[in-house]
Amino acid sequence: MTSLRRLWRSGEPFVWLTGAALAVALIMVAGLVLLIVVNGAGFFWPKRIVRVTLDDGQRLTGQVTQREAIPAAPGRYRIKLRVANRDLYGADFVWVDEARILGREYPAGAALIERVEWGPLIGTVEEIREDGQVIARGEQAWPALRARLREARRLRREIRRVEKGDLGAINSAQEQVRLRLKGLELRGVTSGDAVDRLRREIPTLQDRYALHEGRVAELRAQQRSSVVVAADGGKQKELPLAQVVDAYRPNAMGPVAKSLAYAGNVWEFVADDPRESNTEGGVFPAIFGTVMMVLIMSVVVTPLGVLAAFYLREYAGQGPFVSAVRIAVNNLAGVPSIVFGVFGVGFFIYVVGGTLDRLFYPEALPTPTFGTGGILWASLTLALLTVPVVIVATEEGLAAVPRGTREASLALGATKLETTLRVVLPAVMPSILTGLILAMARAAGEVAPLMITGVVKLAPALPIDSAWPFLHLDRKFMHLGFHIYDVGFQSPNVDAARPMVFATTLLLLLIVMLLNLAAMTLRNRLRRRYATGAI
Amino acid sequence: MAVANVRISVPSREAAGPPISEAPMVEIEHLSLWYGSKLALKDITMSVPKHRVTAFIGPSGCGKTTLLRCLNRMNDLVDGVRIAGTIRIGGTDVSDPALEVTELRKRVGMVFQKSNPFPKSIFENVAYGPRILGVRSRSDLDATVERSLRAAALWEEVADRLDDSALGLSGGQQQRLCIARAIAVEPDVLLMDEPCSALDPIATGRIEELMLELKASYTIVIVTHNMQQAARVSDYTGFMLLGELVEFGLTRELFTNPRDPRTEAYITGRFG
Fold first, then answer.
1. C-alpha separations of A513 from A395, A434, A441, B4 in Å
2. Quick one: A305 and A256 in the same domain?
3. What's the domain range around A341?
4. Residues A404, A473: one domain?
5. A18 within a domain of the structure (yes/no)
6. Is residue A112 located within the same domain as residue A138?
7. A170 inside domain
8. Is A279 within 8 Å of A496 (Cβ atoms)?
9. Residues A352 and A416 grouped into a single domain
10. Per-residue pLDDT band at B11 (split at 50, 70, 90)
11. B206-235: string of b/e by CB count within 10 Å (b at 16+)?
12. Which of A411, A342, A348, A404 is nearest to A374 (CA)?
């Protein structure tokens, strides 16, 4: 009894308890990150292709993606084989009972071909054809494919550049002309110089359109090669090279080649547009949308929050009313985000956006310009959501600026405004950045309010492009958080999409980390410069 | 804050010592101050001579800091303060509502009990006052900063690290930096509110030496707890008790031959 008592009085059990709590928290976070990193980063590694022979003589070629115990059959396992070739077999994945496998081999010639449509193709490259004529066959087929792939990619990029860039610009110019004519019509102008000039622009634009269209047709005519792939079950597939994104033979690759392919895959994921309803290709538009939305939000929320905090702490008379306001602001940070989303729709989109449309874009009505979800409204909604965080952090920083510092400035003949701007503001800069870091972290991860204020599954264009006025704040955009939800839970091909979910999650984590790191570096630099004790 | 130029009905205690023959810099007449309803300064009349060090001593809460802060109207910042009486600095009525308080504070510098450098570089700390006054030229600022730091006996120690943070200096250096900052705008009067109370004896000694040098150019008013310090540095001393100026006169006379029994009791250590 006394020894137990002594143990309790020594405080030792409490130390262990606190340590254990911290350990549990750390293990949970580390486990989460590890799970995402392993699943997300492994996705891009070129897995070797196995050919299994089953007891009934059937052969299956594919990549092992999973191995698990068969339910209700102890000691037996099954593997999940990604056989791909959706257009040939109907399904990408096959479960195989390990007990039925007679042999496994890893043929060096097995190739994985990433296509623009229908997911990857797994098989052996047999022939390369040009205009239906066989150019290379058997052993020569693979080098010929690699050689032609580069040219095929260049052509595809060129076609896309013309289609999206040049044709897109002409399209938007035509739309501008149409809208301006409509605008003149609304004002009762149906003839005269202005109308004629606009009308004259139309044929010019149409000519330019036809010119670019001709160029596209010309480029397409150059895409004459195709590849013939033999797949299991004696099936054959002839695939135009125009459809091939990449091709590699993982079983014949050394570690260096695999690493290069890995880097290439990661780059494709980060820098390309999505394909196949987001289950293939890259997530570049989502990265762009996420970062841009966070930046617009930061630009709005920082001045707003900082000014509000300055008023609360520096100018408002401290009394019960200000205390109530402060409590209300703090509680605002706890309001469910979807509530802010509803407010964003009800106020920003319908009221503000609708008014803007009536005043400045009447010619486009009934098609809304700002009266529908867009990156501006989503950013403003998130700014509203995160403004309490900035206010609280700034206020704490202001409270930590010593009274003596302000008095020193006032005693030198500075006015209150000069004191605030020259002494107090620099001193609270680190606190403001702390608030901004928290706000950005919250905004980058928020999905619910975005779903109703402007995020879409697939945006046709980025919010910044080469068409005037370059920054299109009215456009809908893609977002990594929503992308995860969409790919993981709304996708028609869940098995194929699952690795994408982890990879996108990992990317979102990295982006949030990068944004935070940038702000933290800035804050530390400021702190070192002033070496203050303020938060 | 309402500053009224009203005579008040507290019994007048005419001059707690013989009239001072030197030219006055600060003249205080019938000054009373209330914090809310509490009377903190009772009908103080005195004058501070030019280019001398004048010390206020007295026990805690006697009102010496409040009196000091009346001279540059820092009490304006406190809610519920009311003042009656007149203060003239260099002939200008300080409590005149038409007087810009920022103008006054440019003429009356202040050094605080706790050193309070700005979280900026050493250079920017000293250049702060001149910048507020509108000095833009870099060469003027450089000259002012060097002159002020030399006058505050800090130049030798910081000349090669003017761009470092002022908060990296030692306590004594920070206080001398605050003095340099205050004299960078060349005020007429320098107020010092227990400038050495947070410093060790060596740093204190340096500040005291500095005061003796600075009095050639500035009129210094210092509040101190430390009677030895008052005796060492000041030419004139006022003893305050419970908001009253009990005795005011030449330091030498006040310490060797106090006229009021309360002063004698305090300086001989019987209370306080």
1. 25, 14, 8, 60
2. no
3. 284-530
4. yes
5. no
6. no
7. yes
8. yes
9. yes
10. very low
11. bbbebbeebbeebbbbbbbbebebbbbbbb
12. A348
Q: Report the domain count for chain A.
A: 3
**Residue that finishes a domain, picked among A271, A305, A336:** A271
Q: Is A529's Cβ below 8 Å from some Cβ in B?
A: yes
Nearest to A426 among B120, B132, B181 (CB): B120
Helices (H) and strands (E) in chain B, counts: 10, 11
- Cα dist from A200 to A124, A168, A186, A204, whole Å: 57, 20, 20, 7
* More confident of the two residues A91 and A521: A521
Taking CA atoms, A325 is separated from A45, A117, A314, A450, in Å, by: 54, 56, 14, 27
What is the identity of the amino acid at B174? Answer: Q
Within 8 A of A405 by CB-CB distance, chain B residues are 116, 118-119
CA of B170 vs chain A CAs: smallest distance (Å): 14
Nearest to residue A232, comparing CAs of A101, A54, A92, A89? A89
Same domain, A190 and A314: no
Nearest residue of A to residue B192, measured between CA atoms: A411
**Least confident interval from A139-148, A257-266, B19-28, B68-77:** B19-28
Which residue(s) pair with A247 in the sheet? A113
Q: Does A417 touch chain B (CB under 8 A)?
A: no
CATH, residue A102: 2.30.30
- Asked whether residue A267 falls in the same domain as residue A331, the answer is no
Residues 6+ apart with CB under 8 A from B103: A413
Q: Please, which residues have CB within 8 angstroms of residue A484's CB and are 6 or more apart in sequence?
A: A501, A504, A505, A508
Cβ atoms of A285 and A462 closer than 8 Å: yes
CATH H-level, domain B3-9+21-267: superfamily:
P-loop containing nucleotide triphosphate hydrolases (3.40.50.300)
**Residue-level length of chain B:** 272
Asked whether residue A28 is assigned to any structural domain, the reply reads: no
Token pair of A264, please? 């290439």
Considering only CB atoms, B77 lies closest to which of A404, A410, A426, namely A410
Distance separating alpha carbons of residues A498 and A504, to the nearest angstrom: 10
**Structure tokens given for A476:** 């809908």
The per-residue pLDDT for range B232-250, each reduced to its tens digit, is 999 999 999 888 888 998 9
d(CA A280, CA A509): 20
Buried residues in B152-175 as b, exposed as e (16+ CB within 10 A): bbbbebbeeebeebbbebeebbbb
pLDDT of amino acid B153: 83
* A65 and A148 belong to one structural domain: no
Cβ within 8 Å, pair B120-A408: no
Q: Does B116 touch chain A (CB under 8 A)?
A: yes
Q: In the structure, what pLDDT confidence band is assigned to residue B9 with cuts at 50, 70 and 90?
A: very low
Q: Is the pLDDT of residue B6 over 50?
A: no
Q: Is B114 on the interface with A (CB under 8 A)?
A: yes
> Is the pTM higher than 0.95?
no
And the tokens for A371?
């009266």
Is it the case that residue A75 has pLDDT exceeding 90?
no
> How much is the mean pLDDT over chain A?
84
Q: Please check whether residues A62 and A111 belong to one and the same domain.
A: yes
- Domain presence at residue A153: yes
CATH of the domain at A468: 1.10.3720.10
